[in-house]
Write a structure and sequence with these properties.
By secondary structure, this protein is mainly α. The chain has two domains: about 230 residues, MFS general substrate transporter like domains (Growth Hormone, Chain: A, Up-down Bundle); about 30 residues. Helix content is about 75%, strand content about 0%. Helix 6 packs antiparallel against helix 7 and helix 6 runs antiparallel to helix 10. It is globular. The N and C termini lie far apart (about 75 Å). This is Putative Glucose facilitated diffusion protein. GO terms for molecular function: carbohydrate:proton symporter activity. It is a multi-pass membrane protein.
Amino acid sequence: MSMEREKDAKSALKDIHGDEDGKSYGAVSVYGPQIFELLSFETRKAEYLTLGNYISYFCFMTFAWLLIDVVGRRKLMVWGSIGLSVSFLLLTLFGGLNEVSGVPDLAIEIPGSIILFAATAIFGIGWLATVWLIPTEIYPSAARAQGSAISVIVWGLANFAVTLLTPIGFNNLKYWLFLVFAATNTFAGWWTWKYCPESGGRSFEENQEFFESAAKEGSWAVQKVDDGKFKSMPKGDDEEGNGERAPLLGRMFELAYILGYEIQIRNRQVQVVLPRCGK
């Protein structure tokens, strides 16, 4: 495959992920108080809840680096899109109930807040860091700087556009804007499932096989390239003993086991030595 075609394919992958990274959830994080107000909260409570949402955002995003090498990048993003789409559909429902007279505020505030907090956690785990990791695993050194620069520019422009248009959407569409967010996340999930290969657990050379095979077969659909080989992370132990391919969570458990075993040995040695010292 030519270098130009390889760059185009990889830039397209990164651009769509960078675009989604700043798409609907960039607006949710910026305009959190307005969203909570749509769920019938007063302004001060909406601001406090937004602060709490940011704190939970920080906590849950730490799970990404534990799961990303165990579950895989592709699966995290696809299921993340599904979770976000469902969350925004439910927020549309509860936003509509807020317009219906006779519905208690708590019946909207409590489930609506839980859904919004859950959506924040889903985005932090599934999309926040994942889209920035994939390019480092598929870009060749010659194109990494240029491709990353283009991706960041596209992400920045998309983020600017969405952040600018969101208040206009809230003023005109109100809670129906959540339905738009559900649609964009559904599209992002479909695009990821269709065209984004799983790059985790593979070396750079192994990831290049996807693009070479895709060029030969004339299709970028993951299911059609190498009989769906890149739909998930490779199975089996690392025969070469390359620690970088081992899941991070697995390495942590292994390290904890080794440390615990050493502590037990040292404790036994201390128990044996101390009586002798007493004599």
